[in-house]
Amino acid sequence: MLAFRYIAMHYLKYIFIILGALVLFVVGFDYMDHVTELSKSANLLLIYLVYNAFYAVDLLLPLSLVLGMISTKIFLIRSNALVSFFSLGYSRVDVLKPFVIVSMTIIVLFISLHTWSSFARAQEFSRNIRKHAQYLNPTRDLFFAYKGKYVYFSKLLPLQERAQGVRVFSVKNNSLKEVVTAKSAEYRNGFWHIKKGDLVTKPDDLSLASPGIKVSTANDLQILEGFRPKMLDQVYEGKVNFTISDAIDAILLLDRQGIDTRTIKGALYKIFVYPFFAPFLIVIIFFFVPMSVRFLNVSLFSFGAILATLLIWGILMMLIELSNNKTIPSEVGIIGPVVILMLIAIRQWRKYRLATS
After folding, report:
1. Does any domain span residue 294?
2. Are 221 and 197 in contact (CB under 8 A)?
3. Same domain, 13 and 97
4. DSSP for 78-139?
5. 95 with 140, same domain?
6. String of b and e for 333-352 (b: at least 16 CB within 10 Å)?
7. What does the radius of gyration of the chain's CA atoms come to, in whole angstroms?
8. Cα distance between residue 8 and residue 11, in whole Å
9. Are 71 and 149 contained in the same domain?
10. Is there a contact between 276 and 338 (Cβ–Cβ < 8 Å)?
11. Does residue 258 belong to any structural domain of this protein?
């Protein structure tokens, strides 16, 4: 228990030092790169920096877990604490357990942060502040199909749960049947409500004997059941920064409509699967490190371990981007590499656990 507490405390210290340094570097570099584009408002600038910090944490926390383990292991070797633990009867697996338990706990907390919209959509919000001086930019000219109808919003305001310039086209047998036009619609109680609109109905028969096109007033119309404004904005704008609840709701809703949900599934895989590369990589790297400075060149090992970690992390991020763009299936780009790391880690764990049993 003493060894677990000692290692865990030093591990947490190095995680926060490395994460803090990386976040400050990313936020500072981004600020210097875009300072001329940012609003002069101190409030907006502060919000921009906070959202950028959230995005940097989302991007770099799993990487910091691995780099923190490398730094902690080097500290234990240089201080001869690792040799002392082995002399007291601790095995390699016993020394590894604090790293695995702490990293897994942090990852669970990290995943739970994605239920919070300000964290999950931090990159989108910071980009909106830089380009439009507001963190939630209205979506314009949104046109999509839903439940056999074609819907057009001239402007969607997700925060106010309101849309302007609404058009709803009903099609039957590949022919336009009716059109509903309205100045605005509001989302309430699971539906988009059109308080008052104009209903244009086209008859099936357009001959001279037909009554012609009928124009009437429609009141209290309900459309788009269950399509929340934020979900609508994310899905049809092709964005990939979903909260967990929005992603699950979108998949359940769109699957019933036969609409492609690969991007949304990829977003969920990134939240739930991708972060676990960190503990698996920790296990793999851990067993390659000797117990004393007499058996390795510490500087050379540090350079090699950090380089390998950055290379693997970079490949994973590249595959995630390819999955987001539907170049490759998200199962191949996100789940596949993490499963491979898991199998290698399990093999390493079992090998050294059997050797010490």
Report:
1. yes
2. yes
3. yes
4. HTTHHHHHHHTT--HHHHHHHHHHHHHHHHHHHHHGGGSHHHHTHHHHHHHHHHHSSSSPPE
5. no
6. bbbebbeebbeebeebbeeb
7. 27
8. 5
9. no
10. yes
11. no
| Domain count for the chain | 2
What is the CA 179 to chain-centroid distance, rounded?
38
Residues 6 or more apart whose CB falls under 8 angstroms from that of 59 comprise: 26
3-state secondary structure of 297: coil
Q: Which domain holds residue 208?
A: 134-228
- Domain end, chosen from 179, 198, 228, is at 228
Please give the structure tokens belonging to residue 305: 């371990």
Q: Which long-range contacts (CB under 8 A, 24 or more apart) does 126-135 make?
A: 126/48, 126/51, 126/52, 126/55, 129/38, 129/39, 129/44, 129/47, 129/48, 129/51, 130/34, 130/37, 130/38, 130/48, 131/37, 133/39, 133/41, 133/44, 135/47, 135/51
Strand partners, 302: none
Per-residue pLDDT tens listing for the chain (357 residues) = 778 899 999 999 999 999 999 999 999 999 998 888 887 778 888 989 999 999 999 999 999 999 999 999 989 888 888 888 888 888 888 889 999 999 999 999 999 999 887 888 888 888 888 877 776 666 788 887 777 788 888 988 876 788 899 898 888 777 788 888 889 999 888 888 888 888 888 776 666 555 667 778 878 888 878 777 777 767 766 666 788 888 888 888 777 777 778 888 888 999 999 999 999 999 999 888 766 666 667 778 888 899 999 999 999 999 998 988 888 998 999 999 999 999 999 998 887 766 555
Q: In what order do the strands lie in the sheet with 139-146?
A: 139-146, 149-157, 162-172, 175-188, 191-201, 214-223
Smallest CA-to-CA distance from 4 within 102, 80, 88, 83 is with 102
Burial class of residue 122, CB neighbours in 10 A (0-12, 13-18, 19+): buried
Helices (H), the chain: 2-34, 42-78, 81-87, 92-112, 117-120, 122-132, 229-236, 244-257, 262-272, 277-286, 298-324, 330, 336-356
